[in-house]
Amino acid sequence: MLYQADLSEIPQEDRSFAMQVLRDRIERKVNFFGVAEPVIQVEEGSQRLIVELAGIGDPAQAVEILGQMPFLEFRELKERSAEETDKFLAALEEAEGKDFEEIQEENPYFYEGDPSLYFESTSLTGRYLKKARLEPDPIVPGRYAISLQFDDEGAEIFEELTERNVGKPLAIYLDNERISAPIVQEAISGGRAQITGDFGQEEARQLAGGLSEGALPVPIDLISQQMVGPTLGKVSLEQSLRAGIWGLIAVVIFMIIFYRLPGLLASLALVVYALLMLALFKLIPVTLTMAGIGGFILSIGMAIDANILIFSRLREELKAGATLPIAVEEGFRRAWPSIRDGNITTLIVALILFFLGTSFVEGFALTLTIGILISMFSAIIITKNLLRLFTGNRLGKINILWH
């Protein structure tokens, strides 16, 4: 998708920065968990933004995703004659407590045919928004409001804006539609504001969610869109699948030859592990490009590593003369500290990568984190219970299957 940004209200020296903020906000929206693998870039020397989203078959769905990102801005009353200003303020006072649609019909001062007729844009936009949350409207029971918190720079702009507009309305616009125009009673410090209007709970929740995910710093318009083939083409996909299948077969053969029956059971647990991982990838959903596949494969290695530690301890117990049921329990008990410490240290690194990394690094870290957690479940719960099934039957008495 190709978008055109409207930078007419942004000073020339700030336009490059505004486009980078726009790019970052959209990436945070479409790639919150780092696994969507989008390609988002600003056309050099232009006001256009290229957005490539993988794994979406319906173009309308892609457009809708970005359409949920509102453009927030604050506007102040234009400089007009004292008579017109007084008339406008009187209209605001008369409208207090009435339904907003009814106000628009009754009073021409609220007519929205020309949004710039009474208000003009200021430098305070969604670019400075830090967070937004839903809360009950303190004035009208049953309605809801959205509380806004600006960052430090936005807080300074908001304080200056309210200071010069004491006794005047300060309009809040979303996507060029005025939501409310409260009268400023005094200068407001701390960077906190509130959007009130005829909001139901669900509508207010969606609006707060859209703002929290990233209010756009500038308005954007969709110029064109097109479907293209996957970056990871058919040949690459077939080669990756073939490598994965042969790698899995090699691991299974090694485990069975070296560990006999426990190795076979570990291979069954590995299949369950892989199915759980793929189910979670579908649920999140995860776009499996190179970063995600790398994290997945690394977690498979860690899942096998946990089983090897357990089986090595089990063999030591059997050589020491322990019975099979006792050897199984002791093997897990003695292997657990090594499994726990190894996985926790890797998990710490994965979490650091997720919270401090960006884009593809986040995707790798997330798939690795999920893989570590599922691998611990696979080794400690699934493999352990499969082994317990054989400790009391005939197969448990055949030494060659265990030594």
List the helices and strands and how they pair.
Layout: E1 2-5, H1 15-30, E2 39-42, E3 48-52, H2 59-67, E4 72-77, H3 82-95, H4 100-106, E5 119-125, E6 129-136, E7 144-150, H5 152-163, E8 170-174, E9 177-180, E10 192-195, H6 201-214, E11 220-224, H7 234-283, H8 290-319, H9 324-356, H10 360-390
Antiparallel strand pairs: 1-3, 1-11, 2-3, 4-5, 4-8, 6-7, 7-10, 8-9
Task: Summarize this structure briefly.
The chain is of the alpha+beta class.
Structure description:
The protein has 403 residues and is α+β, with helices and mostly antiparallel strands. The protein is built from ten helices and eleven strands. It has two domains: 2-224, Gyrase A, domain 2, CATH 3.30.1360.200; 234-401, Multidrug efflux transporter AcrB transmembrane domain (Multidrug efflux transporter AcrB transmembrane fold), CATH 1.20.1640. The chain has helices spanning 15-30, 59-67, 82-95, 100-106, 152-163, 201-214, 234-283, 290-319, 324-356, 360-390, and strands at 2-5, 39-42, 48-52, 72-77, 119-125, 129-136, 144-150, 170-174, 177-180, 192-195, 220-224. It has a four-stranded antiparallel β-sheet, with helices on one face. The chain has a four-stranded antiparallel β-sheet with strand order 5-4-8-9, with helices on one face. Mean pLDDT is 78; it is low at 108-116.
